[in-house]
Amino acid sequence: MARKVILYISVSLDGYIADQYGSVSQLVGKSEEYSGDYGYEEFISGTDTILMGMNTYRQITEELSPDTWPYPTLKSYVFTHKEMDDQRGIAFIQRRPEKFLAELKAQSGKHIWVCGGSNLANQLIAAGMIDEFHLHIMPVVLGGGIPLFDRAHPNLRLCIENVKETNGVIDITYSCS
Fold first, then answer.
1. What percent of the chain stands above pLDDT 90?
2. Mean per-residue pLDDT for 96-118?
3. Which of 20, 46, 80, 86 could connect to 54 by a Cys-Cys bridge, CB 3.0–4.6 Å?
């Protein structure tokens, strides 16, 4: 089976992946008591590589999980313009994402997760490198912030593969046609 490149991300009903301050704290389901994972464990079991931009990396390491890297079992790649020393399990990449990803995809392994953010995702969408869009549409309208799609992607045609609702969150998977 060929490796898929999957954009797996939460988004508000009006298309934002974070609010105007870069926070994702408002991207939650209907009930705060919900203790499920919206299918995350199932998704991550088929994944061995994670890609993200520097802003997402900073948010994870400074806000969401400052004491522990939350993806110790995944090969982690962070795209940045700065020269940085690799860390345990995390490589900092100063190459064009689509060229690096083409090499990764040619290697054997499980699926590749594009975690964020908007800039990286949009570069890969524009290059036609996303095989699957797995979106968690949260029941909130932010009214502004960081949009998932920050540029036009004319003629991007998608096919629905799966839809389900849990705790007010629409979990939808699209494949590219």
1. 80
2. 94
3. 80
| Token representation of residue 116 | 């964020």
For 100, list phi and psi in degrees, rounded to 5.
Answer: -60, -45
Question: What is the pTM for the complete model shown?
Answer: 0.93
What amino acid is encoded at 2 in this protein? A
Decide if pLDDT at 88 tops 90. no
Length of the chain in residues, anyone? 177
Give the tokens for residue 117.
């953010």
